[in-house]
Amino acid sequence: MVLSVQPSSPEYVSSDGTVPPPQRGTFAKITRSVSASCRRLLTVISPDAATGGSPVPKAIGGNISSPFNGKAQGRAQPRFSELRKEIWKDSMRESWAEVLAALKDKAEQMESLGSKAIPRFHYDELQKGLSDEQIAEIREAGVVVVCGAVSKEEALGWKQSLQDYIAENRDRVICHPVTKPVFYELYNTKAQILARTHPGVVKTQKALMSFWHASDPNSEISLVQPISYFDRLRIREPGYHGWTLGPHIDGGGVERWVDPGYRSCYAPIFEGGDSWKQLDSYDVTPRLTANQDLYDSANQCTVFRAWQGWTSLSTTKAREGTLRVVPFLKLSTAYVMLRPFFKPKPGCEASLEADDWEPDLEHGEFHGTSPGRAQNLSVKSHPHLQLDKTVISIDFVEPGDQVYWHCDLIHAVEAEHTGAGDSSVLYIPATPLTVKNAQYLTKQRAHFEAGLPAP
């Protein structure tokens, strides 16, 4: 069942990441499942944790770059070729042609619209209730900017608190890149806990999670109660920092095709013909069985985040080190999922025409990713996306503004920061309560109590 139970304190989740007590039977069902798993999960963290000792975690390693630059678990594997043959339908040729034709039009549209392609609403509008047309606009783009939920003064106060903390603990804070930091591996500073539990942030997340639904009414999930997922932060000074996040999709790489549960999220795409148009990116039911991390990758997120997101701590414009997105969710998802099944014909490597591409079922490569790595995208690996035209920067945000993007959306960070001030954000996703996510909270709580980074 899709849970609709409000917790006892509707606006706040405990700062240690725990969920308030259940109110009715359906919520209790999840809680009982978590309770049964808790001792086993704590044992993974420490042999002593399950019996009340001080938890000592298994090895913790990696940083934000690990899913992109970390060790891959081998490249193309023979079984991947067999998997592609199992998935393949001849009618996927038609799907490929339709998607490529639509991408041509979309690239021209994005080049014309620029940042206007990214929906932007005030927090008050969200709370009063958006129109069906406005909700459809957000769902189609897969991204939204929400202004006004957090005051500018409060957000700037959080940033000052963070800067003070970093200065006082400079020799202990882990950051990346080391020589000119951008990303800080901090998870539970006072400012982060205040931001995650801020009523405006929580209410924004509730509103956005309501855009999702469950095709199976027996799905064990609450789309009305965000949980507190501990994430890092970014404080980026002007200039070039040597490394940044190029176009990518989080939540695993080859898992999207290899894991049956994860693949089911994209089932209409593999039906061929125009079935890809029936893709429902906001159906939560198949997400509940998806395994985003088959290869135990360093720093790979295993939690289902309906919306990834951040809250701004600075005034930032395009070309000032901000977020970039490909704001057409269904079409870009269909292309990414179909891409491994096609290759250019000999001599047609530079062509974007569908007639110049043919099925490729013999090779095991999944373009832009391999086991243990995230899904990267480039002009070379995914040429039809025309990323030079379709990756759009968030044009303008002020302290306290929030940006959320769908978990399947292609996104990146600008390579250079040409502005005068810092470009800073707290990463705070909209994460629903599910059985798997609740199980993760038991590990997260143990790490929190031990003074350790999030698992």
Could you characterize the architecture of this molecule?
- The protein is an alpha+beta fold and 455 residues long.
- It has a single domain, classed as Jelly Rolls (Sandwich).
- It contains 14 helices and 22 strands.
- It has an eight-stranded mixed β-sheet with strand order 2-3-18-10-21-7-5-4. A three-stranded mixed β-sheet has the order 1-6-22, with helices on both faces.
- Helix 1 (25-45) crosses helix 14, helix 4 packs across helix 12 (329-338) and helix 7 packs antiparallel against helix 8 (190-196).
- The protein is globular.
Lay out the secondary structure.
Blueprint: E1 2-3, H1 25-45, H2 66-69, H3 78-87, H4 92-113, E2 120-122, H5 123-128, H6 132-141, E3 143-147, H7 152-168, E4 175-176, E5 183-184, H8 190-196, H9 199-209, E6 221-227, E7 233-236, E8 239-240, E9 248-249, H10 255-258, H11 260-263, E10 307-312, E11 316-317, E12 323-325, H12 329-338, E13 342-344, E14 357-359, E15 375-376, H13 387-390, E16 392-393, E17 396-397, E18 402-406, E19 411-413, E20 416-417, E21 423-427, E22 431-434, H14 435-449
Parallel strand pairs: 1-6, 2-3
Antiparallel strand pairs: 3-18, 4-5, 5-7, 6-22, 7-21, 8-20, 9-15, 10-18, 10-21, 11-17, 12-16, 12-19, 13-14
Helix pairs in contact: 1-14, 4-12, 7-8
Pfam families: Gig2-like
Region (Disordered): 1-24
InterPro entries: Gig2-like, IPNS-like_sf
